[in-house]
UniProtKB/TrEMBL annotation:
Coiled coil: none annotated. The keyword Transmembrane helix applies. It is found in: Membrane. It holds the Pfam family Polysacc_synt. This is Membrane protein involved in the export of O-antigen, teichoic acid lipoteichoic acids. It is a multi-pass membrane protein. InterPro entries: Polysacc_synth, PolySynth_Transporter. The chain crosses the membrane at residues 7-26, 46-63, 84-104, 110-131, 138-158, 164-186, 207-223, 246-270, 282-302, 322-344, 351-373, 379-399, 411-430, 436-457. GO terms for cellular component: membrane. Keywords: Membrane, Transmembrane, Transmembrane helix.
Amino acid sequence: MQIAKNYLYNVIYQVFIIIVPLLTIPYLSRILGPSGIGINSYTNSIVQYFVLFGSIGVGLYGNRQIAFVRDNQVKMSKVFYEIFILRLLTICLAYLLFVAFLTINGQYHAYYLSQSIAIVAAAFDISWFFMGIENFKVIVLRNFIVKLLALFSIFLFVKSYNDLNIYILITVLSTLIGNLTFFPSLHRYLVKVNYRELRPIKHLKQSLVMFIPQIAVQIYWVLNKTMLGSLDSVRSSGFFDQSDKIVKLVLAIATATGTVMLPRVANAFAHREYSKIKEYMYTGFSFVSAISIPMMFGLIAITPKFVPLFFTSQFSDVIPVLMIESIAIIFIAWSNAIGTQYLLPTNQNKSYTVSVIIGAIVNLMLNIPLIIYLGTVGASIATVISEMSVTVYQLFIIHKQLNLHTLFSDSSKYLIAGLVMFLIVFKISLLTPTSWIFILLEITVGIIIYVVLLIFLKAEIINKLKFIMHK
């Protein structure tokens, strides 16, 4: 039951930090236009490289290490301070490198300076600690208030294209303030430590091990927008960014189990409870498949209507991009389940690293020709193929550790139900007018069809959900 509660909290958290900008997109699309959205997307993608460098993999590493020692308050306190100090040092170095970057890049100077607050905010992001102790409630509540204030501020202060910098400042400052609000809650969990005994540098090597795959992940999440801005135009970067936001919203629900299960599996691994680890993996993978497959099919079905209503007709180029990129949802969900729920918490860092490096290399190699010849559509195709390559490699790695037949036992049922749902919803979409009422109708019909088919096909996930609800 605790896992279910943490999953719901994490879903709320992941969806909320994405849904706030999504709520403002229809407004900002009209106020800032494709160029303003593109400049924000492009400059943010550059700054995210410095955030990544300064963070050096602390998010996942800190989450796991806290989970390992959370039963010992003294050890947990020491580990927290060591990792926090290490991150402060690396963020300072990252900001110095950013200043050096600004001296050789004159374009969008003011926007870059505003975006750089995100680097400072990363230094105070200690959400990894609360995830490690499986306290997702504090993360959700504190971020909810801050993001809500940011939402109101956007509608209050962003009135024209000239307010682009104000929009950027509101976004990054809300992140910084949200991170700072975590600190008052720390005293409940930590005890005083002898600061002379702290050895933050000892965590550097293992953080770097987890930093390498995060670099690779960042490459095929952010490099698409950077390369589109460089090889095509900032407008193209903005179109892809809009598609990416929708896909990430869907993925926040599908991959929330990864963040929840990582500390749980890591703790089981520390206690050598290997049978429990396999049980967690089989259940988690089945659940991820059950929700990501209909989300993929459903998003493809409603995209032609959704995009012009949500983004305005100026963003019609987003339609084919979003329809193609939606296919990546299932591969990302699977690789997240294998990587975050199994490989990382069981200390198989090398295998996880190799998998995402393969994805980054595939993405980079495909991006150059596909973006040049196909633009945003090419970037979305490269994303799907690179995510598929990550999943295939991870499955190869675990095929001797886990029973793949058990892992995919009900996947065919999810695919059949999802495909039937797609055909019916897409047909309804073709026969009905473009309006929010009919989109909501299509989503409702799709959910009903999918659930009914799963019951008819006797999918095991239905029985597990019934069991959880009656506990």
